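hi! just following up on the protien thing from before. the input was this:
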Amino acid sequence: MIIRKLESVKTVDWGNGLSRRFLLDADGLGYSITDTTVRAGTKSRLQYRNHLETCYCIEGSGEVVELDGTSHPLTPGVLYSLNNNDPHYLVASPHVDLRLVCVFAPALLGDEVHNLDEGTSSAY
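and the predicted 3d structure came back as:
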């Protein structure tokens, strides 16, 4: 059995927020679970080419925007899943951080960070 507390997990500044990584590849489960904060007022162009990701919003607000401009509001209780390695923008509202619980498959190694160059999607 694996038991972890928020204050003892690996915390990574991924570029526009913090990712607290509860489960990693070394745990041998085949998936990762993170508690991710997206800083208020940020917009991140992302694409996970090597992972599938599902996120559940637990605090704050924002939106996930497809590259064609289709926007999906994020508020507590909303889940989105990037089941086709979908490129997207993750946007936090201007006045409050967005907080998500995220599952990655396959599992993250633990040190991944984004390169948030405006012209391309950051991937890992």
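Residues 49 and 85 are 6 Å apart (CA to CA).
The mean pLDDT is 93.
cheers
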